[in-house]
């Protein structure tokens, strides 16, 4: 230790020597059980580090280097010293006002306090205080700083206004004050008087010493748990910690700790107290609720200062002889949270991490073996390597630290080597605005990564890079052309697609009014139309005739009826826009039989006389045809009814064959129809129209015509008689 104006150093050395003797004589029960804490890292800092403080808001640690006249600034998240700030001569202690982000450093050899802006790391002012200032504490609520002046026969505490940096008062306390702490909740200040074996209690509001409490030998540092209103004082000369009830000012217990306890810090969140034992290079951990030392943690050489970040539950200890800071974390038994490990592929680099909590943790394969080609990193829990053989390997990984162990069994299936993807999906279906869409592009076995390598998907659709599924709800019509590429460790394959997006669906409207009758044994097909697809058709009530089914996509009712009867049912058409229903009745007639023409002959016909005759061949439906010959001129055959009809136009005899056909077969018959000439009708005089003439003229004409006809008739008879 340095020989300068700090007369307390000599007393500290003496206390250390006395502490070593006391530690030798102290019962072993003063030490703790197996530690549940662990030193997670050791950070090099400046020369002879003493005091430490933490700003939990910024997660920053400040360490004063007594031998280097500096402050090391540590990033609590990374454990890296981010800067070193020059301060006054022989700095010994540091305190932080997290509210204003201001740091206060006592310069023991310079009788001053350096004020540092925590945001910039710049010393903004230096405040003169009493002789050999050794300890400092801040009341963030009142923005007041308290400095214990330890030099010579100093018996004072300097009070600084944090807002102005002015010493507003100097309070007389016990002999050689070396520690100071504040309870901001009660606005009470506690000062450890190193030579007086006492603690002075100051009312922060008035600056008056309200009481003096006797404690152990050479009280050195003081810490307060404001939550429980409990004060802890390290007794450097008696290897103990005095516990004071802040409400009554009574020492409620004295806790044996390690050799030469130097500094003390409290985590109010966990109600845990940490004491640096400078003579035994350790930290005693005290349960604030029971007052029992729960563990003793080995640290570096000559530990002095200690500070706690309650937010991260991390403890920082300065090792004066080692020029380092030990970082202590609570050791929690490992808990493996990695439920499964991914499959592997021959020839493909593999890496998977088994997570079990905060380090340091040691990982081992406690049973079974890893797949060939893979190894376990015992520090990180990473299983990695390149598999060399297919198969399935089952093994158990165990995570161990000072607090316990945890194990978990895993199975890794190793597949054959990866092959280049081949996209086998030839086309993607069309889409409709407002209708959910999903289509999968297949390219082989995974893992495969799918990307849109050119063009763009229709608006509203996305590509799942892992599964190759194109999905979403289209938002606009049009046609989009794009290229999808499938990639794995072996190579890539691409294919171009076009997806047409139609307008949004409208509610179906069934326009088919009726369905035709059916016949047993006769194939049947009828379509129910309800608009443009996609539409789903269902039988929503009743049932179709036996033997018939409904195609849900096309609306076609088809099949071959198996029984007669009448079936009434309702068909419903549904799409994304809504539904529409209609009720139908289909009558199923008996099965068709082969036609049998029973009409033996057809009647004769006469030119100019309307003609109609029916060829009967059984129950319909039957189709009639002229299978050979021709009908008389002017006559036609009705193919449905078998009626031969019309008006003959010429005489003669016509022979033809009629054939009756249905689903069961055919029957034919040959007919002959004779067509006679039209009948001659005797003249009727009245028919001449002469009767419409006036009688005088008409009568004469009628008599003349009659006479001519009589003459002609007489000649006809004579010629035939000859």
TrEMBL record:
<dbReference type="GO" id="GO:0016020">
    <property type="term" value="C:membrane"/>
</dbReference>
<dbReference type="Pfam" id="PF05345">
    <property type="entry name" value="He_PIG"/>
</dbReference>
<dbReference type="GO" id="GO:0005509">
    <property type="term" value="F:calcium ion binding"/>
</dbReference>
<dbReference type="InterPro" id="IPR051200">
    <property type="entry name" value="Host-pathogen_enzymatic-act"/>
</dbReference>
<dbReference type="InterPro" id="IPR011045">
    <property type="entry name" value="N2O_reductase_N"/>
</dbReference>
<keyword id="KW-0732">Signal</keyword>
<feature type="transmembrane region" description="Helical">
    <location>
        <begin position="692"/>
        <end position="714"/>
    </location>
</feature>
<keyword id="KW-1133">Transmembrane helix</keyword>
<feature type="signal peptide">
    <location>
        <begin position="1"/>
        <end position="32"/>
    </location>
</feature>
<dbReference type="InterPro" id="IPR011964">
    <property type="entry name" value="YVTN_b-propeller_repeat"/>
</dbReference>
<protein>
    <submittedName>
        <fullName>YVTN family beta-propeller protein</fullName>
    </submittedName>
</protein>
<dbReference type="InterPro" id="IPR013783">
    <property type="entry name" value="Ig-like_fold"/>
</dbReference>
<dbReference type="InterPro" id="IPR015919">
    <property type="entry name" value="Cadherin-like_sf"/>
</dbReference>
<keyword id="KW-0812">Transmembrane</keyword>
<dbReference type="GO" id="GO:0005975">
    <property type="term" value="P:carbohydrate metabolic process"/>
</dbReference>
<dbReference type="InterPro" id="IPR015943">
    <property type="entry name" value="WD40/YVTN_repeat-like_dom_sf"/>
</dbReference>
<dbReference type="InterPro" id="IPR048433">
    <property type="entry name" value="YNCE-like_beta-prop"/>
</dbReference>
<keyword id="KW-0472">Membrane</keyword>
<feature type="domain" description="YNCE-like beta-propeller">
    <location>
        <begin position="55"/>
        <end position="332"/>
    </location>
</feature>
<dbReference type="Pfam" id="PF21783">
    <property type="entry name" value="YNCE"/>
</dbReference>
């Amino acid at each position: 230790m340095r020989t300068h104006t700090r007369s307390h150093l000599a007393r500290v050395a003496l206390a250390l020597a006395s502490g070593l003797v006391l530690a030798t004589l102290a019962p072993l029960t003063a030490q703790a059980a197996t530690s549940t804490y662990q030193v997670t890292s050791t950070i090099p800092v400046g020369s002879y580090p003493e005091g430490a403080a933490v700003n939990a808001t910024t997660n920053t640690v400040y360490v004063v280097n007594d031998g280097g006249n500096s402050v090391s600034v540590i990033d609590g998240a990374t454990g890296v010293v981010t800067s070193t700030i020059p301060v006054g001569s022989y700095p010994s202690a540091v305190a932080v006002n997290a509210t204003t982000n201001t740091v206060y450093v006592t310069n023991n050899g310079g009788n001053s306090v350096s004020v540092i802006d925590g945001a910039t790391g710049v010393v903004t002012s230096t405040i003169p205080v009493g002789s050999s200032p050794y300890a400092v504490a801040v009341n963030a609520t009142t923005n007041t700083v308290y400095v214990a002046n330890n030099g010579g026969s100093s018996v004072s505490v300097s009070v600084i206004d944090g807002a102005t940096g002015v010493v507003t008062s100097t309070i007389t306390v016990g002999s050689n004050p070396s520690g100071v702490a504040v309870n901001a909740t009660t606005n009470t200040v506690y000062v450890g008087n190193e030579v007086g074996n006492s603690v002075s209690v100051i009312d922060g509001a008035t600056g008056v010493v309200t009481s003096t409490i006797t404690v152990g030998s050479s009280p050195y540092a003081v810490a307060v748990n404001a939550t429980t209103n409990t004060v802890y004082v390290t007794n450097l000369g008696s290897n103990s910690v005095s516990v004071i009830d802040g409400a009554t000012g009574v020492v409620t217990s004295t806790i044996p700790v390690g050799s030469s306890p130097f500094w003390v810090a409290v985590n109010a969140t966990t109600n845990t107290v940490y004491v640096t034992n400078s003579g035994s290079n350790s930290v005693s951990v005290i349960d604030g609720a029971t007052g029992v030392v729960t563990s003793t943690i080995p640290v570096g050489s000559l530990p002095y200062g200690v500070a706690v970040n309650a937010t991260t539950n991390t403890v920082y200890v300065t090792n004066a002889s080692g020029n380092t800071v030990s970082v202590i974390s609570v050791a929690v038994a490992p808990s493996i949270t990695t439920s499964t490990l991914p499959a592997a592929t021959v020839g493909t680099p593999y890496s998977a991490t088994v997570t079990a909590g905060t380090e340091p943790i040691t990982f081992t394969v406690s049973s079974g073996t890893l797949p060939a080609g893979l190894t376990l990193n015992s520090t990180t829990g990473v299983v990695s390597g390149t598999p060399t053989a297919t198969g399935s390997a089952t093994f158990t990984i165990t995570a161990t630290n000072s607090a316990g162990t945890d194990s978990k069994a895993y199975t890794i299936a190793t597949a054959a080597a990866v092959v280049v993807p081949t996209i086998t999906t030839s086309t993607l279906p069309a889409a409709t605005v407002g209708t959910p869409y999903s289509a999968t592009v297949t390219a082989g076995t995974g893992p495969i990564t799918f990307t849109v390598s050119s063009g763009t998907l229709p608006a509203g659709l996305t590509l799942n890079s892992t599964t190759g599924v194109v999905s979403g709800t289209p938002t606009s019509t049009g046609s989009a052309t794009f290229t999808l590429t499938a990639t794995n460790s072996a190579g890539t394959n691409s294919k171009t697609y076009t997806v047409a997006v139609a307008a949004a669906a409208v509610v179906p409207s069934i326009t088919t009014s009726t369905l035709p009758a059916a016949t047993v044994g006769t194939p049947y097909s009828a379509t129910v139309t309800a608009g443009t697809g996609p539409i789903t058709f269902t039988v929503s009530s009743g049932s179709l005739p036996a033997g018939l089914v409904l195609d849900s996509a096309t609306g076609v009712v088809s099949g071959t009826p198996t029984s007669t009867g009448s079936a009434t049912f309702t068909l419903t058409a549904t799409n994304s826009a809504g539904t529409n229903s209609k009720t139908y009745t289909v009558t199923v007639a008996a099965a068709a039989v082969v036609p049998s023409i029973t009409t033996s002959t057809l009647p004769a016909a006469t030119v100019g006389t309307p003609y109609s005759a029916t060829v009967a061949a059984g129950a319909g439906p039957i189709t009639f045809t002229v299978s050979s010959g021709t009908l008389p001129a002017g006559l036609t055959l009705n193919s449905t009814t078998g009626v031969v009809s019309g008006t003959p136009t010429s005489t003669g005899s016509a022979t033809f064959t009629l054939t009756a056909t249905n689903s069961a077969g055919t029957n034919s018959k040959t007919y002959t129809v004779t067509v006679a000439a039209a009948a001659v009708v005797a003249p009727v005089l009245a028919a001449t129209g002469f009767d419409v003439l006036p009688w005088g003229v008409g009568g004469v004409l009628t008599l003349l015509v009659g006479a001519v006809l009589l003459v002609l008739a007489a000649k006809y008879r004579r010629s035939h008689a000859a």
